[in-house]
Amino acid sequence: MRFTKMHGIGNDYVYVNCFQEPMPEDPAELARKIADRHFGVGGDGLILICPSKVAAARMRMFNADGSESEMCGNGIRCVAKYVYDHDIARQSKLQIETGAGVLTLDLEVRAGLVERVRVDMGEPILEPAKIPVQLPGADLKQIVDVPLAPAIELANPENWIERSGLDPRMTCVSMGNPHLILFCKDTIAVPLEIIGPALETHRAFPRRINVHFVEVRGPHEVTMRTWERGSGITWACGTGASAVCVASSLTKRTDRQILAHLPGGDLELEWAIDGHVYMTGPATEVFTGDWP
Questions:
Q1: H-state helical runs in the chain
Q2: How far apart are CA 289 and CA 213, in angstroms?
Q3: In whole angstroms, how large is the CA radius of gyration of the chain?
Q4: pLDDT confidence of 111, banded at 50, 70, 90?
Q5: Where are the domains of the chain?
Q6: pLDDT tens digits along 114-160
Q7: Which residues contact 89 (CB under 8 A, 6 or more apart)?
Q8: Burial (CB count within 10 angstroms: exposed 0-12, middle 13-18, buried 19+), residue 10
Q9: Which of 143, 223, 151, 215 is nearest to 180 (CA)?
Q10: Residues ≥6 apart with Cβ < 8 Å to 53
Q11: Torsions phi, psi of 8, nearest 5?
């Protein structure tokens, strides 16, 4: 099976062109094996680029643990680059089918290759039942700056809550997949490897959740770190950065247009007046090989 390794600011996946390669019999098991950074190709998961009846291509995304997710913001930019660069569709505006619907992407092309992609991420979902979030005893139309306690208790080894300056209020947003956003003064002080999995699998989140800690640098700038559902700590999360843009705007911490600094690089986000979130960032092809 021919594969291509690609990344969007360090959020790396193994991509398979299912226009040419047969659909894997067990993509979940393949994802677990091929994404292994010691015994496989290595990556945050597996993305299949498939034929679609309604778009230029269909994206199916599997996390490193084999679970299938609806969408990946960094992944869909790479899918668009692959579709254009490998002559599946040579339009500078593409539509890609995902588990979160059909999304529209504008491609920035230089010397015949895609360098950056602007993605219409659609409208954020704020209704708790649709994210989904289930807080006992709560009847909320939105979960915006809602106190963590008593619904969710956080372990505090070595007093990280105090050291990070955590604001103990949460905001939850879905961008086709669920996100939990917490604001703090120092993202580096958060023991993400401990807190991330505890929050991801908390009973309040029936489909698990992506977790983001965010440091606001100014009205147009944030720094964030991510624990990604099914993959763990990742260098970037495009849907997460989109959710952070919505959350920081809703809570009046930033304006509706921000630059998000992630460990792997920067993303430009805008929650536009049409209600849609637009994300812009690079897409990079690394190498191609054969599995196994």
A1: 27-34, 73-85, 160-164, 192-200, 238-250
A2: 35
A3: 18
A4: very high
A5: 2-120, 128-279
A6: 999 999 999 999 999 999 999 877 678 999 999 988 778 888 888 99
A7: 56, 57, 83
A8: middle
A9: 143
A10: none
A11: -115, 105
pTM of the model: 0.92
User: In terms of Cα–Cα distance, which of 64, 62, 56, 55 is closest to 23?
Assistant: 62
Q: Is 128-279 the same fold as 2-120?
A: yes
- Sequence-ordered strand ranges (E) for 113-255: 113-120, 146-147, 169-174, 178-183, 210-218, 221-228, 232-234
Each residue of 209-254: pLDDT tens digit? 999 999 999 999 999 999 999 999 999 999 999 999 999 999 999 9
Contacts of 256 (CB under 8 A, 6+ apart): 245, 249, 270, 271, 272
Q: Would the CA dihedral through 129, 135, 138, 140 be positive or negative? A: negative
- Cα–Cα nearest to 171, from 249, 234, 231: 249
Other CB atoms within a 10 A radius of the CB of residue 253 amount to 19
CATH 3.40.50.300 describes domain 128-279: no
Candidates 68, 119, 64; CA nearest to 280 is 119
Q: Does domain 2-120 have CATH number 3.10.310.10?
A: yes
Active centre residues (catalytic): 72, 237
| Total Cβ atoms within 10 A of residue 74 | 33
